[in-house]
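Reminder to self: tokens first, then the designed residues, so the page reads top to bottom the way the pipeline ran.
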């Protein structure tokens, strides 16, 4: 058969493919389902652990076994994502309720990673086993796995709103979700309240669920904004750490300010960043009331100790830490989940509504399955009881039958054509028998000891219990009110067994106010060595050791202590550092890495010009890139309070070669290329442009040729050494910009 080629528009195919990919990421990877509050990978890990019988009272199993089994059967997307999921579900400082009981190194709150999966072991927590996986076979639907060799649950029969209890975080294509954790007991209370009054307002529901409850504790400082967040499903929660004051027991002992709880957003690397920030503030004399800081945290909790000076202003210290560090942070809420097969931002009522619809489905399925089993049991029990009453007839039928088929036909339909009765009188009674198929099978399989009097009594007792269960199940299924009561009772039992005390305080905290003390304006000297360590020297120290400093330091910049240090980089970025944020030091002090004071990354970028903000006023900056794009920019263009701004626009594959500060427009420019070409032209031929422009071409480059250097010449003679010979730049002929130049 000949090939048939279908022609389609390229843009349409790209659009279609991208939409398919994005929806796959949204629904099958990053966003949780509103019903069980789990992402597919979380659901598959928990289900696989239940299939491996890793119950809470069973021995732990190697994490590598769990990861391998999950990847091979249900989630073929790499072992790292599966193991990371397993680790996170075991970390009590990230989840409202941990679902996995980890054994070994599963990481720490300070950002330490978990050990390799071959070293750790895991099993299910009792909470996960009882609340997330119970009645799996009676409630939810099963679907084929990725290669249709196994079955997996579409969702887990979670009996609490996991979307609220454990929250969720995920980034998909074009959307993301961020749901905070909540207290299990309060979540149960709000669900019960919603069952009693589905028309309740968000404010009424928040009487039972006042707000998030983070596993790290801390303080929520914007209580008044929470109703709007729960109503819309989006907003920002202001988080703060919590302090305790520990007074010195002896006269010589210093008072201590103890940070016992941190914002949820600070876990991981944020703790170390906080310690560094505070330490630099100590070094730069911004926290004069604090003597020292130490991290005494352990597995029992957070304990960051600040030693205080005598008569320290504790409120001022708190305000500084809240205002200038991550001890006050915001948690962005976006309660996005997959509801009815599509992503939707849910309100608190929307989450509860989705959960209850799911519970009604599961409850109905569960009790229908249980009812069916009890009805089957009732049928068999009634058959066995009836058989015991005519056991002589049953025995006569069995003795007179030539096969099991004949005996069964007689029991179900009264067919005695193939039955030879040894004693008269039984044939007419046998014709009246009409047991069901299931009853007949049970009678034929019944053992003789069941005819003992006590066994018959036990059978009758079981029959009565079965009738009670049937009546109970039918009552539950008969009305929504009865079903509601069952769900409420179930939730109450979960709360009683698993609920924890609230850990996060909710209040409308006052705004942290901190006014920096005015410092006398004085001249200082910024210095930075070739390793990127910088500091401030006072003017006297510098002038006394000027020769040494100028020799040892790569950058030396005089400025005022109220000024800013400006770093123009090869990446076309301007980084600004307040001089007041740079620690002062002695001549032999090492200083601090410039990366700690700004977003400049010395490993991936290069400084082209270092100056102070005051020096830019009334002057111009000449930019030159590797691809020979040049421009002038007024220094006033860079008057900004931002710590990082784009200094110029670069085309792909280009970078800034040099930035020169000048105020002489009568000067001339010499451009030097890697091919040995030199071009001299007046500076005013370089256009004065905005910082967001690319510039104009300065010199024509050959293939694989780049701009190597730019020189700004005044009236004085200027020469350079090039290829072991002296070249006078001031003696070159002045031509026009955008020429080829002269080969040297």
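Designed residues (744 positions):
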């Amino acid at each position: 058969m000949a090939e048939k080629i279908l022609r389609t528009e390229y843009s349409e195919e790209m659009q279609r493919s991208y939409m398919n990919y994005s929806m796959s990421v949204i629904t099958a990877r990053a966003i949780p389902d509103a019903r069980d509050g789990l992402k597919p990978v979380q659901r598959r890990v928990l289900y696989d652990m239940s299939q491996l019988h890793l119950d809470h009272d069973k021995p732990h199993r190697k994490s590598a076994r769990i990861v391998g089994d999950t990847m091979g059967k249900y989630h073929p997307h790499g072992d790292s994502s599966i193991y990371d999921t397993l680790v996170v579900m075991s970390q009590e400082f990230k989840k409202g309720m941990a679902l996995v009981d980890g054994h070994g190194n599963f990481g720490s709150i300070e950002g330490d990673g978990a050990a390799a999966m071959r070293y750790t072991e895991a099993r299910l927590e009792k909470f996960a086993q009882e609340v997330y996986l119970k009645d799996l076979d009676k409630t939810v639907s099963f679907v084929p796995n990725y290669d249709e060799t196994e079955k997996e649950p579409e969702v887990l029969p979670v009996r609490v709103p996991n979307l609220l209890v454990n929250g969720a975080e995920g980034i998909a294509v074009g959307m993301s979700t961020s749901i905070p954790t909540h207290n299990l007991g309060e979540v149960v209370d709000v669900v019960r309240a919603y069952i009693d009054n589905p028309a309740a307002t968000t404010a009424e529901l928040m009487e039972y669920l006042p707000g998030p409850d983070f596993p790290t504790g801390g303080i929520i400082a914007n209580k008044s904004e929470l109703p709007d967040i729960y109503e819309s499903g989006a907003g920002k929660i202001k988080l703060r750490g919590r302090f305790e004051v520990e007074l010195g027991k002896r006269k010589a002992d210093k008072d201590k300010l103890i940070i016992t709880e941190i914002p949820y957003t600070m876990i991981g690397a944020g703790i170390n960043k906080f310690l560094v920030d505070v330490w630099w503030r100590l070094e730069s004399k911004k926290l004069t009331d604090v003597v020292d800081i130490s991290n005494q945290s352990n597995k029992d909790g957070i304990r960051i100790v600040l030693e205080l000076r005598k008569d320290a202003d504790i409120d001022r210290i708190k305000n500084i830490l809240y205002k200038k560090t991550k001890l006050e942070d915001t948690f962005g809420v976006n309660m996005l989940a997959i509801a009815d097969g599509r992503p939707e931002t849910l309100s608190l009522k929307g989450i509860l509504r989705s959960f209850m619809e799911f519970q009604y489905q599961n409850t109905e399925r569960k009790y229908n399955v249980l009812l069916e089993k009890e009805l089957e049991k009732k049928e068999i029990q009634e058959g066995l009881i009836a058989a015991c009453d005519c056991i002589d007839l049953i025995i006569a039928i069995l003795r007179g039958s030539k096969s099991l088929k004949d005996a069964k036909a007689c029991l179900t339909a009264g067919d005695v054509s193939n039955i030879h009765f040894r004693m008269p009188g039984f044939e007419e009674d046998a014709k009246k028998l009409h047991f069901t198929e299931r009853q007949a099978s049970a009678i034929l399989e019944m053992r003789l000891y069941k005819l003992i009097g006590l066994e018959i009594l036990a059978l009758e007792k079981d029959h009565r219990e079965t009738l009670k269960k049937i009546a109970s199940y039918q009552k539950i299924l008969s009305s929504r009110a009865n079903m509601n009561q069952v769900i409420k009772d179930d939730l109450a039992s979960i709360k009683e067994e698993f609920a924890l005390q609230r850990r996060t305080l909710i209040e409308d905290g006052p705004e942290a106010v901190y006014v920096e003390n005015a410092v006398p304006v004085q001249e200082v000297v910024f210095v930075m060595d070739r390793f990127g360590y910088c500091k401030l020297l006072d003017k006297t120290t510098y002038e006394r050791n000027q020769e040494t400093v100028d020799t040892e330091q790569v950058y030396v910049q005089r400025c005022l202590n109220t000024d800013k240090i400006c770093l123009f980089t090869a990446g076309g970025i301007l980084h600004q550092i307040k001089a007041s944020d740079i620690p002062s030091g002695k001549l032999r002090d090492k200083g601090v890495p410039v990366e700690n004071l700004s977003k400049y990354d010395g490993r991936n970028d290069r400084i082209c010009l270092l100056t102070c903000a005051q020096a830019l006023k009334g002057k111009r900056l000449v930019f030159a890139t590797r691809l020979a794009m040049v421009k002038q920019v007024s220094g006033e263009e860079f008057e900004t309070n931002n710590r990082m701004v784009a200094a110029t626009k670069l085309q792909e594959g280009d970078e800034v070669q040099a930035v020169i500060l000048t105020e002489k427009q009568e000067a001339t420019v010499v451009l030097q290329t890697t091919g040995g070409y030199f071009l001299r032209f007046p500076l005013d031929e370089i256009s004065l442009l905005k910082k967001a422009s690319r510039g104009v071409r300065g010199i024509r480059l050959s293939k694989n040729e780049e701009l190597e250097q730019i020189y700004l010449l005044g009236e004085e003679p200027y020469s350079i050494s090039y290829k072991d010979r002296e070249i006078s730049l001031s003696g070159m002929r002045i031509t026009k910009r955008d020429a080829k130049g002269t080969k040297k």
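The chain has four domains: 38-157, 242-326, 357-497, 523-743.
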